[in-house]
Design a protein that fits this description.
Helix 2 crosses helix 3 and helix 3 crosses helix 4. The protein has six helices and six strands; from the N terminus they run E-E-H-H-E-H-H-E-E-E-H-H. It is 42% helix and 9% strand. The longest helix has 31 residues.
Length: 216
């Protein structure tokens, strides 16, 4: 799951077989600021989600950058502990990179509002770009007379559910378990650089009657 999760307490499974993922926790405001770049977020999404290695050239192709520019971004991410250099595979002439862990979490207790705001803005802007692209694609299909499949997922859906605290925890756990299940199900071939992807953004926000009255 991406890995760009804010206070992901609900990510813990209740069953005894669950093994906690290796988490990279962002605790340095400077490290948060280092993420305020679209290409770096794409890289982190790719490496943390695929849990495999990529070269700068492969990652550059996903961001419309040159390999040298991507190498610069990778070194910056390495500096703050997000990514690490991996053992060579196949052609050893180009360095390979991997995620430094399985999950990436933002520590919201960091006393740097500007850093956290910059990070969240880049995340939301990236989602907005993907959403607009999907809107344009669906509009083009409609003009071409292409009928959507009955089970096509919504581009964006929001709402609320009425849940006491115990059911909130169950809801969080079951929703995230579904994501983890499909992440783990992906084969090496399905994690290939040219494979199909589906992006998601999950935010579960309890309603509090008074700000600060409920602190977990």
């Amino acid at each position: 799951m991406t890995r760009n999760t804010v206070e992901d307490d609900g990510a813990q499974r209740a069953d005894a077989e669950y093994q906690a993922p290796q988490v990279v926790s962002i605790t340095d405001p400077q490290a948060i600021r280092a993420l305020a770049h679209d290409a770096r977020l794409i890289v982190l999404d790719e490496l943390f989600a695929s849990q495999t290695t990529r070269t700068a050239t492969e990652l550059a192709s996903m961001c419309s950058l040159t390999p040298s520019a991507m190498s610069y971004h990778l070194r910056a991410l390495e500096k703050y502990g997000y990514v690490a250099r991996a053992a060579s595979e196949g052609d050893a002439r180009e360095r390979r990179w991997r995620a430094a862990g399985e999950r990436l979490e933002l520590n919201t207790q960091i006393d740097s509002t500007n850093a956290k705001t910059a990070y969240l803005n880049v995340q939301l802007n990236a989602f907005r770009t993907r959403l607009n692209t999907e809107v344009e694609r669906r509009e083009a299909e409609a003009k071409a007379g292409i009928m959507p499949a009955a089970d096509r997922p919504p581009m964006l859906t929001s709402g609320l559910v009425f849940l006491p605290e115990a059911k909130q925890k169950e809801f969080n756990r079951r929703l995230l378990e579904l994501v983890y299940e499909y992440e783990a199900m992906a084969t090496a071939e399905e994690r290939n650089i040219d494979s199909k992807r589906m992006f998601y953004l999950i935010s579960l926000l309890p309603e509090y009657q008074h700000l600060g009255s409920e602190v977990s």
